[in-house]
Amino acid sequence: MSRYTPPRLSLRVKAVLALWLLFVAAASLFFLGDPVIPALFGVLLLASYGGWRLLRAVEAAADGLQRLAREREEG
Length: 75
Fold this sequence. Notes:
Layout: H1 11-32, H2 36-74
Helix pairs in contact: 1-2
């Protein structure tokens, strides 16, 4: 039986997200003079990532329960 490894974002994806957030922050400060927009964008990114991780954890738990049930039926 293989061990579960949690999904991880690659370094490239993290770098692109960080650069995009930096670009949005700079553009917002330059054009609007408002630092709230990049903060909201950052919160949106964190909430999306947290939701994705929660979904993956629920899927892993369901997969584990299905494996246990299958082993119980076979054994």
